[in-house]
Fold this sequence. Notes:
Strand content of chain A: under 5%
Low-confidence stretches of chain A: none
Shape of chain A: globular
Helix content of chain A: over 70%
CATH topology of the largest domain in chain A: MetI-like fold
Oligomer: heterotrimer
Mean pLDDT of chain C: 85
Order of helices and strands of chain A: HHHHHHHHHHHH
Amino acid sequence: MTVYLLRRLATGLLALVVASVVVFCVLEILPGDPARLMLGFNATEDAVQALRVQMGLDRGLLVRYLHWTGGLLSLDFGRSYTYSVPVIDLVRERAAVSLPLALVSLALSTAIALPVGVFAAARRGRPSDTVAMAASQFGVAVPNFWFALLLVYVFAVWLRLVPAGGFPGWSAGVWPALKALILPSVALALPQAAILARVTRSALLDVLGEDFIRTARAKGLPRKAVLWRHALRNALLPVLTILGLQFAFLLAGTIIIENVFYLPGLGRLVFQAINQRDLIVVESVVMLLVATIIAINLVIDLSYALVDPRLRVRA
Amino acid sequence: MSLLEIENLSLDIGGTPILRGIDLSIEAGEITGLVGESGSGKSMTALSLMRLLPDAARAMGRITFDGIDILAASEDRMCALRGDDIGMVFQEPMTALNPLKAIGEQVAEGIRWHTRANRTDAETLARKMLDRVGLPADKFPLTRYPHELSGGQRQRVVIAIACALKPKLLIADEPTTALDVVLQAQILELLRDLVDENRTGLLLISHDLAVVAEMADRITILRGGEVMEAGETARTLSAQVHPYTRQLAQASMHVPERAKAIHGVAAGKPLLTVQNVSKDYPGRRTSLFHKPLPVRAVDDVSFALGEGHSVALVGRSGCGKSTLARMILALDEPTSGTITFQGETITGRDQASLRSARRDMQVVFQDPYGSFNPRRTVEWLVAEPLHLLDKKPGKTERRELVSQALHEVGLKPAGMQKYPHEFSGGQRQRISIARAIITRPKLVVADEPVSALDVSIRAQVLDLFAELNQKLGVAYLFITHDLTVARAITDDVMVMHEGRIVETGKTAEVLSHPQTEAARALVEAAPDLHRAIAKRMQEQG
Amino acid sequence: MSDRTSDLPERGFVAKAFANRSFLAGFVITALVTAMALLSFFWTPYDVTKLIVADRMQPPSTTHIFGTDQFGRDMLSMIMVGARNSIAVALVAVGIGMGIGVPLGCWAAARGGYVDDALMRFNDIVFAFPALLSAIMITAIFGPGAVNAIIAIGIFNIPVFARVARAGALAIWPREFILAARASGKGHALITVEHILPNIANLLLVQGTIQFALGILAEAGLSYVGLGAQPPMPSWGRMLFDAQTRMVVAPYLAIVPGMAIIITVLGLNLIGDGISDTLDPKLRRQR
């Protein structure tokens, strides 16, 4: 168990280091002169030189990389060029929108997908299965931001149940804030739920064809008990894998959805930063998102070991 | 009234008839053997009794178990019967257990379900049952997981599940087919003891006439979904009234005709020499600080093989015989030692320089399904070793060679444009042999070449091997756990045990007078039809 | 002793796939969408480069069956030309993913050991960069454009195909027919070409349709947020962005491109489902 755990931890750290090198290379080395890129070609040489010094571009590459990663570790992400505030403050403020959005969507999509997948697998081939699978086939094909537009049209413009966009901030109270997140999370969650439900169903059907299911039936367990006691846990392994991948998609999805609903999250921040060529912000936010995805995948890997005793090697 | 009475059972799956008018009965405490080749409907008969048939199946006729009409019973009623009054053991122990649940939980589950016992009581009973099937508490606590057990041990767990509630009827569907002979003997003995203890009726399903002859009181012979012959085991098998019974019995005792045997390495240089060969595999890492101990699969093996010599390498599963074969075929590198083929060292060489050795050394595998790429024609597949020729044959010449090879193994060359799945198992094994002889090799290594075949087809394939040995002078290294195969076709035998060759000698001598413990275990455990019938006749006077 | 056939796909697979309803439906849909995109090179109902302000925001009618946009361009013509962009981006991205990922996956499966480990770690890292993040980085440096979308989606496709190819190849390497091929003196590369690839082709095809569909969705998302194709080049995602502020007065502006995306993606997914239904469950796709 500890061997597996430490090994995964080590590979997770390695991935983090390599990812930081990639981000650093793309955003600081590829442009040649980041300061010039940020200020544009109309800027005076003096201004560019000043920014170079401020960003520490006059130092060697390795020093800059170490300084940057050291800063990341001590939560010092540098200063935003356009906002003139520490990036960490921006990130903290914006993550308070994006993170709840991603988590609520993930919870929502799992809560919808697992029961539907199990239900469809248990009723394989019957009309209810066919309907559920046709609906999910459709759901997989729907772009989440288009679904979001539709939701806004129906629930905000037409029924006027929720605001069409914007975010009052958590300081305005939990309920108004949550209310602003309802449509965005539904828009994110449903297409993901469709994928997850299909994966759950097919994983279950695969497991239901295994020999040990027959052994369980020969014990006298009815179909339903076999499904709950034997099939579900075995089908969880592929479902976990997909959940890990989906989290990455959800994080990316929040970036787009925030633009539909004008939510002041990390996604909006990054787009504003791109338009203003604020590389420092782009670099920090991208790295933060990548680190989150790597961390989530690590958690997924470790939860395999909880589900599957074959991974828990005896000492 | 009998414990189980099957009357005129017919079954079709999606319109295809599987069983036709099966009659069979089992008394309490009696063992009934159900014998037949693949596709005869043995397993479907068993699944009908359990009512665990595929959804598309339709059964007609009457099955009465303990006064209950099985085919008419409700699903709830069947659930109450399964695992309580009727237990079942399956063929494939490696996949029959849930990999995510501890064995104790899996045995206790059925007990709790049927008796509504609490966890502690059920686990106590499960513990007792595991002790009974030979998995003692100190080595096999309830918390063991299936992946920590070997195939034989897993089959014991499956038997514990099936017998936990002392069923009135036990159905065992090829319970030992996936196990080696020594494990087979142990499992069969366990089943017999359990039957005796509880006066359980046992339906033993097997393709192996010898196994059934040793175990069963009564025998039913099935072919194409119909009963050919049924009756008391000894009488049925000794009288062999029905022609199919005779055919089966003869096929399972078949010994191909062969000219004079060659023993040891005749004058001149040996064809193959294996010197002090060992093979280690890296062990599983269990601690961060200790390097895992390597597992020694083959341990200091030496032997020689002459031209035209037919040698068997026998041993239990996991003894290292297949690893040794792969090293001889230069598909795997030994950790130490040297292998010489036709005076040329083949260990530690790069692939390109092995071409000439490979030309003279080919291979036949066990699985007639797995040994062909399904997307290639037979012509392409049989011609594959021609890749080794220095001068690549042209299209017509290649076709010529393939048709000759197919002819030699008794197949019509016209079939060479077909794909492997269009051939039966026996035909595929012939194609496999055609592929092995197309380069006219001096040595063919055959890894369990007949153990996946039905007995009647097995006899034919063994004949083919013997014939090619005479005609082409090709030497064989037969790898098998089945002594009847070794006896049928080899001159000498080597017994392998835990990575070492422990006994070598003439096949007939070693098999009749084994000297070592390992060889004796193999010989004693091997089912033998003659012996079984003789024993039964004697018992009955 | 049981009756079994090989679990690898056998011949006659194409005919079997066409007998599958999902496959047939998906094939027809995809063929129509592709035909529409190809047709747009020669003919569209109206010229999409001409802005006719007098005709702006016309609801669907007999002259403009899907209506016109804020510049008076015919929506049907826009959809047809936009299909080119979607298909081209997704197709090239699948090509990048397959072209690099499949050889990598096959190589890792053939060599095992360190090569395999390294590939799996590489996969982990690339998986941490969803297409949108790569596109954000590329755009920050080079500015927006359709090529960004191709590169970003293509990069993300590499580990997907590498993983599928590796898993499929690993299931085939221990087969006896591979040992027979090795005993015939064939090397890893030749065996991969002659034995592995034909047997994993179906898996790759299924994954190809899935990634194609995901590529269309991703491209739409990128153009929607302005990281993909740039105006005046019509693209489905961009059309949705333009529709957003006009939802209240002209909902058809959002519905038409949305349906175009959904139908295209649905068609591709149906093809994938149809193929994988005809495959053995043990070798079924791994998403």
